[in-house]
């Protein structure tokens, strides 16, 4: 479990995330929703301290406070990141990109040497799981957008992650491909018991795949509940920059110190 305790993030005078307390349970597939600038990426990137909190703390079960260098190193080793623009190296093969997922397991010096057969096998297995074993030796800049994102997923899997953080992983894909790629990510996370926190703009995909939806507006959590509780009106309010028109109320079934979710919009 990852626990955010009163975490806030400021960029100069801008408060990107107001003090927020949340618990992310093991194996849960959480989707972050909210309009542009709502704070989704900021929250997501706090979960492995890619964004340093301005206040508060983040703790991980069995590791403790991530401000501890060793705890952070161990946490990052098992946290796979998936990005909107894939962040792959175009001139390298799919397999070479996927094997980048092993870097956290080695010292800088060791990472200059070829990886072991076992690690190469992990990379090939990851490519196989996303249906791209036959593309292992292809340059990634010769793959389609959907294939490139599947390579991104395979790279994350090669880390043998406990947690995957995916920042708008399907934003640059057409609707059918976006659904296929997200379905694949969801299935793999469920099969392997990997926790996932995924930011999206597609409410329909969030409702289809999330165990839990966290809605943000202006750097605040204004919805936190199971997808079935998100009504069309609430979803609309989430994207209408009108957080004052929705009422936050205690969310009874999740052990989070700040359990909020949207109630029906006020008249
Ligand atoms: N490195 C940064 N420096 C300054 N301001 C930043 C930085 N990163 C984010 N912000 C600001 O923080 C706020 C929240 O940004 P964030 O990227 O978390 O939003 P988001 O919900 O992920 O948006 P989008 O859906 O467009 O990606 C925005 O106002 C953004 O401009």
The helix-and-strand class reads alpha/beta
Coarse shape? globular
Which strand order does the major sheet show?
6-7-8-3-9-10
CATH superfamily of the domain at 1-78 and 196-267: P-loop containing nucleotide triphosphate hydrolases
Distinct ligands: adenosine-5'-triphosphate
Question: What share of the residues lie within helices?
Answer: 25-40%
Major beta sheet summary: 6 strands, mixed
Give the low-confidence spans: 243-267
Q: Whole-number radius of gyration?
A: 19 Å
Termini, distance in Å?
A: 38 Å
Number of separate helices: 8
| Number of strand segments | 12
What are the SSEs and their pairings?
Blueprint: E1 2-11, E2 14-24, E3 29-33, H1 40-46, E4 55-60, E5 64-65, H2 69-77, E6 79-83, H3 94-99, H4 117-129, H5 145-158, E7 163-167, H6 175-192, E8 195-199, H7 203-209, E9 212-217, E10 220-225, H8 232-239, E11 248-250, E12 260-262
Parallel strand pairs: 3-8, 3-9, 6-7, 7-8
Antiparallel strand pairs: 1-2, 1-4, 4-5, 9-10, 11-12
Helix pairs in contact: 4-5, 5-6
The protein binds adenosine-5'-triphosphate.
What can you tell me about this protein's structure?
The chain is globular. It has helices spanning 40-46, 69-77, 94-99, 117-129, 145-158, 175-192, 203-209, 232-239, and strands at 2-11, 14-24, 29-33, 55-60, 64-65, 79-83, 163-167, 195-199, 212-217, 220-225, 248-250, 260-262. The model is unreliable at 243-267 (pLDDT under 50). The protein contains 8 helices and 12 strands. The protein has a domain at 1-78 and 196-267: Rossmann fold, CATH 3.40.50.300. α4 packs across α5 and α5 (145-158) packs parallel to α6. The strands form 3 sheets. A 6-stranded mixed β-sheet has the order 6-7-8-3-9-10, sandwiched between helices. A 4-stranded antiparallel β-sheet has the order 2-1-4-5, with helices on one face. The chain has 267 residues and is α/β, with parallel strands linked by helices. α6 (175-192) links the parallel β7 (163-167) and β8 (195-199). The structure holds adenosine-5'-triphosphate. Residues 11, 14, 16, 34, 36-42 line the site of adenosine-5'-triphosphate.
């Amino acid at each position: 479990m990852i626990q955010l305790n009163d975490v806030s993030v400021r960029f100069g005078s801008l408060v990107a995330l107001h003090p927020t307390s949340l618990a992310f349970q093991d194996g849960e597939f959480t989707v972050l929703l909210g309009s542009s600038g709502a704070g989704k990426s900021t929250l997501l990137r706090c979960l492995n301290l890619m964004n340093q909190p301005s206040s508060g703390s983040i703790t991980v079960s069995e590791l403790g406070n991530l401000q501890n260098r060793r705890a952070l190193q161990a946490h990052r080793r098992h946290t796979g990141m998936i990005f909107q623009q894939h962040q792959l190296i175009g001139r390298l093969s799919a397999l070479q990109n996927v094997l980048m997922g092993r870097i956290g397991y080695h010292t800088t010096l060791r990472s200059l040497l070829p990886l072991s057969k076992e690690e190469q096998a992990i990379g090939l297995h990851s490519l196989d799981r996303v249906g791209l074993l036959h593309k292992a030796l292809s340059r990634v800049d010769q793959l389609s957008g959907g294939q490139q994102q599947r390579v991104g997923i395979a790279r994350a899997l090669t880390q043998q992650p406990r947690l995957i953080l995916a920042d708008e992983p399907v934003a640059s894909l057409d609707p059918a491909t976006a659904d296929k790629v997200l379905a694949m990510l969801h299935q793999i996370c469920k099969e392997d018991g990997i926790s996932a926190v995924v930011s999206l703009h597609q409410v329909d995909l969030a409702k289809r795949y999330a165990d839990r939806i966290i809605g943000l507006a202006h750097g605040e959590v204004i919805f936190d509940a199971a997808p079935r509780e998100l009504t069309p009106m609430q979803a609309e309010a989430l994207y209408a920059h009108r957080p004052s028109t929705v009422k936050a109320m205690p969310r009874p079934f999740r052990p989070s110190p700040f359990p909020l979710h949207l109630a029906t919009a006020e008249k």
